[in-house]
Amino acid sequence: MVIPIPAGGAGGLFGQPLSGPAPPELRHRFSIIKKCVYAMCASMCGKFLVGLLLGQPLSFLSSSLNLLLNTVIGIFLLYDDENLKHVYNFMMNTCCSPCQEQCQGRAGMSCLLTFVFSNLITVVLDIFLNDVLQTIINGFGIIFDGKIQRPVDRIAFTLYIVSATVAFVAQTIGAWQGWEAHKEGQNIGSFSAPGDDPPASSSSWFGGGGGTEMGARPAAGFEAFSGSGNRLGSGN
Question: Residue 236: pLDDT band by 50, 70, 90 thresholds?
């Protein structure tokens, strides 16, 4: 189950909590995040193939658990994507079926901050604990120097360095784009009119319960902030 990081409510540290599918205004950000998730999947496949070539598949998989977690969170974040929704549905009917009731409503924008911070923590740990930047630099130097003689070892080492590079770049860009999407989501949400109750049947992406349906447009003649609603936090 993906546990969303609480945004802290109105005026909190991370602003208002977001939920539901991404609004159209953030599709450009989510298009990049989708490519990052695909790159993470490719990196995991590459590392698993390296493990097969060296006869240690489980060892390489166990060293990629953070990458696996970030990929799963990305799939939950993009649960309504036309391609990844099939993976999401498969997970909900198989490995995530025991917690299916808890996972309902926990996908989409509610996973955005979780995706950001999970990737950010992984990148920071890789830099300072695993020395990934030096590993990548030295690895490409060894590849171009031709110091590895056995063809299998050369292929495995090259694939590992490329996979590590792809994973590092994808997680870095994913965290950055996710944070930018969160900030833009806060700005988009601030334009909703106070005092307006959304339809109960609509799918919300901002806040915890209601919201306007994605892609919906205000009725003709509607003017924001023209009503007589109460200011948030004011007494009646």
Answer: very low
